[in-house]
Write a structure and sequence with these properties.
Length: about 800
RNA sequence: GCCGAAGUGGCGGAAUUGGCAGACGCAGCAGACUCAAAAUCUGCCGUUGGCAACAACGUGCCGGUUCAAGUCCGGCCUUCGGCACCA
């Protein structure tokens, strides 16, 4: 047989698979379905190794499940709206659509080179009218349900991108895309009411045992649920009430000041007829001008200013000073916080700095605190209350409940749950996105574009300039329109939607991609959905994965789908690393998939990536490791070539009894491998160990390279080896299958089962331990009983030697494993 | 600070239920083939001592449970990731 030439055979089979349309999938109620999904890429222009890893994992699963008999949905598409296309327009004058579609073509070409089993007829591109039409339709659905609204708020603004950002897109105070510092701006913007779903998004994480713990934890942290008490303090001089929220009601008798956020609405009122008004306003101005980074950095001093106004602690009637501070967040809770220096470290520091009173309300059980000796607040949630009226002497837990009861009974407070999660800011002042289908009319106000008029198309007559104005606003043909209600002159909303909206439902469109009446047919969604296995990078742990869950829940509530979680199982692959760092242009450690495929072939690239590390862990790229993978495929090629005549002449129903002992051993290795690979791929997602056991099988076959091998066994090994290799290295498996077995595709074969009788050992090697240390090994018949086994072990020369003159205390026998003799 | 994951040879990693630590691969060393090299095939390959048989040590650290611990329990350390002036 000629030498292995991946370049030739890969092209050949890719062409045949395409012509044969072999990956086309249809709904079929009679067969169990399996939906394997890899996160669709942004069309940046080229695949990187992260994509290769992602798609290799997905392709193994899709091909394996197909061979297992499932009706597999394995689609691919492009998350095609977004900033880079627009930047290309600004910098190079290329139309965003042209740039995007050219990139998509190139990436599809690269994906095809990988030999992936996608049903391309289901492809979804979010920037196409037939897709964003339904994105807009879904926006209208949210709007009608009261889940989409416009409001003026202090929002995140990125100067470089010229648009606002969702909270989830601000990473450490910086823009997720361009890394520049994010500012706060007061703007009127569109939001989706994800907070309505905060509780169920949190609670339903329990329904996802197939998700990695770390992803669930991240979402939990992000949603940030806390339980506490909201109550009001009267401001007698102003005839006002200030609500505050606390998770430590037990400390309420220790309130000595009240801290307002600089943005708190009451601040303005406090300044009326206030001699310190100018000073207070200047302070607020200073605080508000700080960026989030400055405001929240660890070193930033707690600062405040006394307003001269006081309020009353409703629990004990104490007079409490009202301060405006820089450390209270306007957006969380009520924007006002009770100040208890003895129970909160921030309040402690603030009180110490400004000489505010401190009242101790909680004493630990094991030692006594004295205010004058304390250097920090006592923040433990254990102890006994002091200085707390009728609650004095009560245990912390009991008092917490008692104080909340008191507030509720007297009507000045109630138990409350708070979330860190904020509503999702979805409008963007950008062109390359789905236009928000809303019309503003002077007379009628805000109106949805009628469903029959969707999509609201992106205009072509726009200007791309770096500036503050959204490019859509420069198109008269777009902005000027008629009001759908009164027919009078009106103008369109010029913001587009966050691309994360587009990607929040794409997995549903794959199920019914050509539907022109609806986003998807309910029956199809309920057949295919939810996704059985989703595969992607950890970077979407919060953003995309939280948004998709939210969308799915809304669609479930609307009756459009029957399931309330989109992704039953989630696999988060690790990054591809080289020389200890993530591959990046700036570090100069990028390995191009296209070059690797050109040099070694896609099968080698896939095999290396699957073998080098378990899927969840970061993968260290190693050029020598790639050589190793290539070497293995060559070994497979050579050894099957060596036995070609035997494989072809061998019969399926050969006489297993006639095998030699060595041949029996090979057959056992084969069936052990089938068992192992089936478990590793099907249950554990341990592709690295699946590959290693296939290597062991090939090594076992090599033991026969200078010996005769039973033709029937040669055939059995080759047939099953190729079937098991097929999901990992589809081209070489298909080529060898074709050469050895002629007609039919290896990918349409049934996944092999193992012969349980073949893996039974006649003899096993057991270990002799003396006091838990291995001292000898012996091979014994596998079916020997415990007493017999002990006898054999005790009679070993080593056992006799080491137990001579000592007392045997105990003998432990583990069948087929070991005998441990305990001596004194 | 809170939450989560991880820590095993020179390297990537394996050990699935408490039962031989280091499978498989990479690198290295040796042999065969070759005029030679590459490729290929075969063997060796945790550390220390020993010619060897063998012994001692060894899965981040300290302690515990057990005949037996990488695995279980208690207490730490380090690294990575998430959240964080969230009251």
């Amino acid at each position: 047989m000629e030498r292995y030439s991946p370049q030739e055979i890969e092209k050949k089979w890719q062409k045949k698979w395409k012509e044969g349309n072999v990956y086309r999938t249809e709904m079929d109620e009679k067969r169990p379905k399996y939906y394997a999904l890899e996160m669709f890429p942004y069309p940046s222009g080229n695949l990187h190794m992260g994509h290769v890893r992602n798609y290799s994992i997905g392709d193994v699963l899709a091909r394996y499940k197909t061979m297992e008999g499932y009706n597999v949905l394995h689609p691919m598409g492009f998350d095609a709206f977004g900033m880079p296309a627009e930047n290309a327009a600004i910098q190079h004058g290329v139309k965003p659509s042209t740039w995007t579609y050219e990139n998509i073509e190139n990436m599809k070409r690269q994906q095809d080179q990988m030999g992936l089993s996608y049903d391309w007829e289901r492809e979804v591109e979010t920037c196409r009218e037939d897709y964003y039409r339904w994105t807009q339709w879904l926006f209208e659905l949210f709007y009608k349900k009261g889940l989409a609204y416009k409001k003026k708020a202090s929002v995140n603004w990125c100067d470089t991108c010229g648009t606002v950002l969702a909270n989830e897109q601000v990473i450490d105070g910086k823009c997720w895309r361009c890394d520049s510092e994010v500012k706060k701006k007061d703007l009127s913007q569109w939001f989706l009411k994800i907070t309505d779903y905060a509780d169920v998004l949190l609670k339903d994480l329990e329904k996802l045992p197939g998700w990695p713990e770390r992803v669930k934890t991240m979402q939990e942290n992000w949603i940030g649920r806390s339980e506490g008490l909201e109550f009001t303090l009267d401001v007698p001089s102003m005839n006002e009430k200030i609500p505050v929220y606390t998770t430590r009601p037990d400390t309420a008798y220790g309130i000595t000041f009240l801290a307002l956020a600089a943005e708190h609405p009451l601040v303005e009122k406090i300044c009326e007829n206030n001699p310190k008004a100018a000073e207070i306003k200047a302070f607020c101005e200073k605080v508000r001008s700080q960026s989030d980074i400055e405001r929240t950095s660890g070193e930033s001093e707690k600062e405040g200013i006394f307003t001269g106004v006081t309020c009353v602690n409703p629990f004990n009637g104490n007079e409490v000073q009202i301060w405006v501070t820089n450390y209270v967040l306007a957006e969380y809770g009520t924007g006002a916080v009770m100040g208890v220096p003895s129970g909160d470290q921030r309040d402690w520091m603030f009180a110490k700095k400004y000489g505010i009173d401190i009242i101790l309300t909680l004493q630990p059980k094991d030692h006594e605190l004295k205010l004058e000796e304390m250097t920090a607040a006592y923040v433990e949630k254990e102890g006994v209350l002091v200085n707390s009226g009728k609650f004095t002497g009560m245990d912390f837990h009991e008092a917490t409940q008692g104080i909340m009861d008191e507030a509720e009974e007297k009507g000045f407070g109630k138990r409350m749950v708070n979330y860190r999660l904020r509503d999702w800011l979805i409008s963007r002042q950008r062109y390359w996105g789905a236009p928000i289908p809303v019309i503003h009319c002077e007379k009628c106000g805000e109106t949805l574009v009628p469903e029959s008029e969707l999509p609201v198309r992106l205009p072509e007559d726009v200007e791309f300039k770096q500036g503050t104005l959204s490019p859509l606003a420069t198109s008269k043909s777009f902005t000027e329109c008629k009001c759908p209600k009164c027919g009078g002159p009106a103008h369109r909303e010029t913001d587009t939607m966050d691309t994360f909206i587009c990607s929040s439902w794409y997995y549903l469109r794959y199920m019914d991609p050509h539907n022109t009446e609806k986003p998807f047919e309910r029956e199809k969604a309920n057949y295919w959905g939810p996704v059985d296995q989703y595969i992607g990078g950890i970077e979407h742990a919060i953003l995309h994965l939280l948004y998709s869950r939210f969308f799915t829940k809304v669609l479930k509530d609307e009756g459009l789908v029957d399931f309330d979680e989109p992704f039953t199982n989630l696999l988060t692959q690790g990054m591809v690393i080289k020389d200890g760092a993530k591959m990046s242009k700036s570090k100069g450690n990028v390995v191009s998939p296209e070059e690797i495929i050109a040099k070694y072939g896609a099968d080698t690239a896939r095999l290396f990536i699957l073998f080098a590390a378990p899927v969840e862990r970061d993968l260290d790229w190693s050029d020598q490791g790639v050589e190793g993978a290539y070497r293995f495929l060559n070994r497979v090629w050579r050894i099957l070539g060596h036995f070609e005549e035997d494989i072809k002449s061998g019969k399926a129903g050969y006489d297993v009894q006639a095998l030699t002992k060595e041949e029996h051993d090979l057959r056992r290795v084969l069936h052990v491998t089938i068992k192992k690979v089936t478990e590793d791929v099907g249950e554990r997602f341990m592709f690295n160990t699946a590959v290693s056991s296939l290597m062991e099988l090939v090594n076992a076959l090599y033991a026969f390279q200078d010996k005769a091998l039973n033709a029937g066994l040669a055939r059995e090994v080759a047939e099953n080896l190729l079937k098991m290799l097929a999901p990992f290295v589809p081209h070489i498996a298909e080529e060898l299958w074709n050469r050895m077995f002629g007609e039919g595709s290896v990918h349409q074969q049934k996944w092999p089962g193992y012969d349980a009788s073949a893996i039974v050992l006649d003899e096993v090697e057991i270990v002799l331990q003396i006091n838990g240390k291995v001292r000898d090994k012996v091979t014994i018949p596998a079916d020997i009983d415990r007493a017999e086994m002990e006898k054999v072990a005790r009679e070993l020369p080593r056992a006799k030697e080491l137990t001579a003159g000592k007392t045997i205390v105990k003998v432990i026998c583990v069948p087929k494993k070991l005998v441990n003799i305990v001596v004194k």
